[in-house]
């Protein structure tokens, strides 16, 4: 494509941004400014034309409340794009929103996007093409656990091994890192969404109560836990009784919810144990000292670090501001591309 001086000029004044394109939430980190966007990955569209009418937090508010001619979708499932055009519109919206205080009318930023380590080449290409169509002039992709480790401040370039577990909405990413490379990795499509579904099914089966995703998520973060709490909690849950068809409110306990999600939590723990089993003995010895760092929104499940530590006999801790680790790490990569270039997946440069 011939040189375009307008695009080149717009690029000079555009921002460097790191994006955590998550199943549940999309976060945008502008280098030098920090997290400027943290919104749900929801898009409300007009059913007939499939034209977006609301994106992010506004769209999520419409879930379960929209009229018949409007549907609310999550264009990413299990950490990858399931609705290409809607994802493109969402990315474009967030990129423009990040540039609201900028002098650039048509932003052409450099972008680093975190993707699941188990993403296929087709899925990577979909992310790359969506970002290109959304206006980015340079796009780099990085595995989410590596981005999360950088964002959490782990010494990923050291010889000594470190372990990162990033538990988001659609995927759980497990990686043991050393010298900037991945020694062992696992990408599991069991994470926050599965926990929500466990809660929905439990209440349906035991109480004949149908609840929505928003209520299930609220239950998870309010009284959900992976380990017995010092003081068990209760909360009122509102939904529709499947027998009478009428609205109903019941009180449930944290003990019940812990039981409801125990299967999915065990799958995550078993995946982490499997990765540890595959690690070389020298790395295993390192992890006794360095432990396991948790990131991602679902890592904030109460008692999860304690449960992992108890089961795996290792030190486990949750990173500071775990939900933003991938976005912060992605932006940090742009601050020193030569150092991190070997960690990028499908390193490509836009020619426009």
Notes on the structure:
- It is built from twelve helices and 19 strands.
- The chain has 352 residues and is an alpha+beta fold.
- It has three domains: 167 residues, ATPase, nucleotide binding domain (Nucleotidyltransferase, domain 5); 96 residues, Nucleotidyltransferase, domain 5 (2-Layer Sandwich), CATH 3.30.420.40; 69 residues, Actin, Chain A, domain 4 (Alpha-Beta Complex), CATH 3.90.640.
- Strands 3-2-1-9-10-19 form a six-stranded mixed β-sheet, with helices on both faces.
- Strand 4 and strand 5 form a beta hairpin.
- Helix 3 crosses helix 4 and helix 6 runs antiparallel to helix 8.
- The C terminus is likely disordered.
Q: Could you give the topology of this structure?
A:
Blueprint: H1 5-13, E1 16-21, E2 25-30, E3 34-40, E4 43-46, E5 52-55, H2 57-61, E6 70-73, E7 76-77, E8 80-81, H3 84-98, E9 110-115, H4 121-133, E10 138-143, H5 144-151, E11 162-167, E12 172-178, E13 181-188, H6 192-207, E14 209-210, H7 213-223, E15 234-241, E16 247-253, H8 254-278, H9 281-290, E17 292-295, H10 304-312, E18 316-318, H11 325-335, H12 337-340, E19 344-349
Parallel strand pairs: 1-9, 9-10, 11-17, 17-18
Antiparallel strand pairs: 1-2, 2-3, 4-5, 4-6, 7-8, 10-19, 11-12, 12-13, 14-15, 15-16
Helix pairs in contact: 3-4, 5-11, 6-7, 6-8
Number of strands: 19
Distance between the termini: 6 Å
Counted by DSSP, the helix tally is: 12
State the low-pLDDT regions, or none. Answer: 6-11, 347-352
Class computed from helices, strands and strand pairing: alpha+beta
Largest sheet: 6 strands, mixed
Name the CATH architecture of the largest domain.
Answer: 2-Layer Sandwich
What percentage of amino acids are in beta strands?
Answer: 25-35%
Shape: flat
Q: Going by CATH, what is the homologous superfamily of the largest domain?
A: ATPase, nucleotide binding domain
Average residue pLDDT: 89
Per CATH, the class of the largest domain reads Alpha Beta
Oligomer state equals single chain
Considering DSSP H and I runs of 4 or more, what fraction of the residues is helical? 25-40%
Order of strands, widest sheet: 3-2-1-9-10-19
Q: What radius of gyration results from the CA coordinates?
A: 21 Å
Count of domain modules? 3
CATH topology of the largest domain: Nucleotidyltransferase, domain 5
């Amino acid at each position: 494509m011939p040189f375009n001086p307008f695009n080149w000029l717009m690029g000079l004044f555009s921002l460097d941004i790191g994006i955590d394109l998550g199943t549940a939430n999309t976060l945008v980190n502008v280098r030098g400014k920090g997290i400027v966007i943290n919104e749900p990955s929801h898009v409300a569209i007009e059913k007939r034309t499939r034209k977006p009418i609301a994106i992010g937090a506004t769209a999520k508010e419409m879930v379960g409340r929209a009229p018949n001619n409007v549907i609310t979708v999550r264009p990413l499932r299990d950490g990858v794009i399931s609705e290409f055009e809607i994802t493109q519109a969402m990315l474009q919206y967030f990129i423009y929103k990040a540039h609201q205080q900028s002098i650039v009318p048509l932003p052409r930023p450099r972008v680093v996007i975190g993707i699941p380590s188990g993403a296929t080449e087709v899925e990577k290409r979909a992310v790359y093409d969506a970002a290109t169509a959304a206006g980015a002039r340079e796009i780099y992709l990085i595995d989410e656990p590596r981005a999360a480790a950088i964002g959490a401040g782990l010494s990923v370039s050291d010889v000594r091994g470190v372990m990162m577990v990033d538990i988001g909405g659609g995927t759980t990413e497990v990686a043991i890192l050393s010298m900037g490379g991945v020694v062992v990795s696992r990408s599991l499509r069991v994470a926050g969404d599965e926990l929500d579904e466990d809660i929905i099914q439990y209440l349906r089966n035991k109480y004949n109560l149908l609840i929505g995703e928003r209520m299930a998520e609220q239950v998870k973060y309010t009284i959900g836990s992976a380990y017995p709490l010092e003081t068990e909690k209760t909360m009122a849950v509102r939904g529709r009784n499947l027998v009478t068809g009428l609205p109903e409110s019941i009180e449930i306990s944290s003990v019940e919810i812990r039981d409801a999600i125990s299967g999915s939590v065990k799958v995550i723990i078993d995946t982490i144990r499997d990765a540890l089993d595959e690690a070389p003995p020298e790395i295993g010895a390192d992890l006794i000292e360095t432990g396991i760092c948790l990131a991602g929104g679902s890592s904030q499940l109460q008692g999860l670090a304690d449960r992992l530590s108890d089961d795996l006999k290792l030190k486990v801790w949750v990173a500071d501001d775990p939900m933003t680790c991938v976005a912060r790490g992605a932006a940090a990569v742009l601050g020193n591309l030569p150092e991190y270039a070997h960690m990028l997946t499908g390193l490509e440069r836009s020619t426009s």
